[in-house]
Amino acid sequence: MANHLLHHERAAAPWIAASLASIAALLIVVDLASGFALKGWGVVIGPLVLIAAATFWSLARYHTIRLTPSRLVVGRATYASHDFDPEFGVRTADDLTADERAHLESPMPIPNDATIKLAGGGFGRPARTGLVVLRLAGSGKKLVVSTRHETRLGSVLGDWLLRDEHGT
After folding, report:
1. Which of 81, 67, 88 is nearest to 141 (CA)?
2. pTM reported for the whole predicted model
3. Could you point out which of 29, 30, 114, 138 has its C-alpha 20 to 30 Å from the C-alpha of 87?
4. Which helix (H) or strand (E) holds 167?
5. What is the distance between the alpha carbons of residues 6 and 133, in angstroms, rounded to a whole number?
6. Angle 78-89-156 (CA atoms, 0-180°, nearest 5)?
7. Using CA atoms, how far apart are residues 136 and 93, in angstroms rounded to an integer?
8. DSSP for 90-142?
9. Spatial CA neighbour of 121 closest among 68, 55, 61, 52
10. Nearest CA to 131 among 118, 115, 112?
């Protein structure tokens, strides 16, 4: 039952990144192997397609959300329900201060001494995503999860925290 998914959200399909990387490699190899039959365009366009592939890979890697009965996985980070403060519960972006919002909107990494942490390991959040806010039990920092389904994830996370708090 540990593999049962309560919520799953993939920011980008990994096959898109793999397909783009394959196309980029094919363009470069064909252009080089044919003595620049593509007039060098394969060598020029190939790296640009690789950049697009890296973007999709990054989205899939850092912004995929999986919630099972035993853990929450966001990107590279894994949390158990006891890692969170159940009294704080699950809140929306309305709970963030102006400074916390500024950290999230900045293109720079969030400083270690900030009162928030972005779940998943990325530096920013994808466009058109909402926010779900939890509080880490040990440090008191707010953990922000970017999601396309903030109402659904918030509801499922709230039930997940309450279930573990009551031992059910």
Report:
1. 88
2. 0.76
3. 114
4. none
5. 18
6. 65
7. 16
8. -EEGGGS-HHHHHHHHSSSPPPTTSSEEETTS-SS--TT-EEEEEEBTTT-PE
9. 61
10. 118
Residue 61 burial (CB count, 10 A): 17
Residue among 5, 12, 11, 10 at smallest CA distance from 156: 5
> 17 — phi, psi (to 5°)?
-65, -45
3 state SS for 44-88: HHHHHHHHHHHHHHHHHHHCCEEECCCCEEECCEEECHHHECCCC
Delimit the domains of the chain by residue range: 11-62, 65-165
Region at 36 (left for phi over 0; alpha for psi -120 to 50; beta for the rest): left
DSSP 17: H
Angle at 101 between CA 104 and CA 56, to 5 degrees: 25
Residue pLDDT tens, the chain, 168 long:
456 889 998 877 778 888 999 999 998 888 888 887 778 888 889 899 999 998 888 877 777 899 999 999 998 899 999 999 999 999 999 999 999 999 888 888 888 899 999 998 777 777 778 899 999 998 889 999 999 899 999 999 999 998 866 555
Token representation of residue 16: 């898109």
Tokens read off for 150: 């903030």
